Amino acid sequence: MPAPANQHMTKITSKMLGDAGEHYALSQLTFANKPATKMPDNWEGYDLAVEAGEGLVRVSVKTRSETKGWKSSKWFTFDDRKNCEWMIFIFKQQDGNLRAWIIPYSIALANANIPGANRKSAWDREIGWNKLNNVPLLQYENNWEMNNYITDN
User: Fold this and answer.
1) Looking at the domain assignment, is residue 81 inside a domain?
2) Most distant CA pair in the chain, distance
3) Which residue, 110, 93, 92, is CA-closest to 149?
4) What pLDDT does 116 receive?
5) Residue 3 maps to a domain
6) Which domain holds residue 18?
7) What is 113-148 written as a DSSP string?
8) Looking at residue 22, which CATH number applies to its domain?
9) Which of 7, 60, 106, 126 has the fewest beta carbons under 10 Å from its own?
10) What was the pLDDT predicted at 8?
11) What domain count does the chain have?
């Protein structure tokens, strides 16, 4: 008797999800005429090097999927000690559709929470789902051309 078809399915690990997000970002950036390359695994501070038109920029990719855990923690986390110029937040919905925000690092940092004094990891910043879905961050959704809509000046 053959095994049920779903018995051989592999559980998607967080590493696999992260790798998939990085490869998705690579393809979308390249299709937007921003050629990119993936850095080696565990590269410090960023995941992609992207030719953004004025030289290479460092990009950190954060990928999450809609799961039971997402319901109680609707945000993306990043380490403010890691240096990069851009952040890409990718969200895989339960129906398989993807949403992505391509945000200059300084804008992401300015819109992230400021950890409280008692926070164990004072460098962990979070950008909540509500902020990503409202102005000013909403304008960065699908911003594969890497436009900076808000100036730092």
Assistant:
1) yes
2) 68
3) 110
4) 77
5) no
6) 11-140
7) ----TT-SSTTEEEEEHHHHTSTTGGGGBT-TT---
8) 3.40.1350.10
9) 7
10) 61
11) 1
